[in-house]
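Hi Q.,

Before the meeting this afternoon, I wanted you to have the pyridoxal-5'-phosphate prediction in hand. No need to reply - just skim if you have a minute. The sequence and ligand are here:
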Amino acid sequence: MPKIMTAGPTMVKDNVMKARSQAFTNPDLDMEFFDFYKDTCQLLSKAANTENQALILGGEGILGLEAACAALTEEGDRVLVVDNGIFGRGFEYFVKIYGGEVVFYESDYHKPVDVADLRKFLEKDSDFKYATFVHCDTPSGVINPITEMGQLFAEFGILTVVDTVAGIFGEEVYMDEAKIDILCGGSQKALSAPPGLTMMWLSEKAWNKIYERKIPIKAFYANVELFKDYYEKKAFPYTMPISDIMGLRVALENVLADKNIIERHRKIAEATRIALIQGGLKLYLESGWSNNVTAIELPLGVLDLELRNKMKDEFGIMISGSLGCLEGKVVRIGHMGENAYEDNVKETLEALQNSLEALGFSAKSNMAEAFTKAMK
Ligand SMILES: *Cc1c(COP(=O)(O)O)cnc(C)c1O
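Predicted structure with the ligand bound:
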């Protein structure tokens, strides 16, 4: 297997793999599972610095984005979709599926959302049921000011749906302070569990909006309301993927025990950028580089797939291409979760440099050495 130094899924620790292979009980019938699930959700609340209830849904991260929009959208609702990245713009689809009217707030993909500019926009038009935005928009790697944006929307009385699938655990999230109403996470990014689970955190305000709906949520699998009283009723809407959740629990314990995790991510990310720039490569972003993923512009004449195939086939390292309008223009190193260790990134930079040079690009300096130096 190659090393997956990608923007997700990320590499998974042995103790998580072991937990997933343990014997398991019947999660519909064994009351102990309800406690296990609830305790795991409480740890998730702790990780997001919130008193709000968390839920784990059986489905990859996209399920949470859809479920959030399904929960808050009623026919004809105006929804502000913050578009400063590919996942950001992508909320359009979920809002529309559930009957919402999308209004975009557009901003330059090369930098984070400018909160002062967003305020000006809202001063002219703030008649929105809710707004959607992405914490770390992975295709560019940009990190948005989640707390300031959440607080701004709250000030204008607008509910918020925030995708932190690729943010949380490598970047700090203070859900209560940021006044976010629905926060969405996934198992396969900085948490470093395999893909397959969605995490959602919902505020009281979000729950109240759900109860006030005139027409019930138009979904079943993507309906969070069906989870509301699971513990009291001792019933989930469908059988929970227990092995996945046993793995997630251990991944979460790993993360919570790692007191230095954000600083580890910050340092790795910074050293990665220094090394790439010294090597003569250009970062896609002008500012707002996340701790979790770095997007690198492909040098002239180097083709995306040629580079990535070479890295994978000759050096056993996978990195990511990108999506949408960035596809074929940038490649990305995912340095979050279990990927975020010095050896992994050093090896990735060596493979990148060797592959680039084989494809005709001459680096200005040794990137792995520059990285090691910057890590000191
Ligand atoms: C990974 C990710 C998701 C989940 O989407 P997949 O494409 O299915 O992996 C959602 N939002 C963001 C920002 C992500 O990085």
